[in-house]
Design goal:
The protein has 100 residues and is mainly beta. The chain is built from one helix and eleven strands. Helices cover 7% and strands 42% of the residues. The chain is globular, with a radius of gyration of 13 Å. The termini are close together.
């Protein structure tokens, strides 16, 4: 699967290496080109997953504010629910298209 922003592949991994949570594909950290991500100051804590880290995707015109996110230290109960440790896995939306 691929995550594409501004016609550039910014993440790519086999489907079996991704984790699907609540309608979003989470990419393993090593599969994401980190140079496209900038940490955002937007705060959010998911009631069942824990503290979220948002990222802005890209720079300049067309950059996507908060269009990627991860959970650096998900709650243990969330890992139990998902049945896999998704710490630091990264999901995308809005300006980033995820395709097979």
């Amino acid at each position: 699967m691929k995550a594409v922003w501004n016609n550039q592949v910014i993440a790519e991994a086999d489907r079996q290496d991704l984790i699907y949570i609540e309608g979003n594909w989470y990419f393993p950290p090593a599969s994401v080109k980190q140079e496209f991500l900038r940490k955002s100051d937007t705060p959010y804590t998911c009631p069942w997953k824990g503290v979220c880290q948002y990222f802005n995707v890209g720079e300049g015109e067309g950059a996507g504010k908060d269009d990627a996110w991860s959970y650096p230290a998900p709650l243990p109960s969330a890992i139990d629910t998902v049945k896999k440790d998704f710490s630091n896995y990264i999901a995308f939306w809005r300006s980033v298209q995820v395709t097979d």
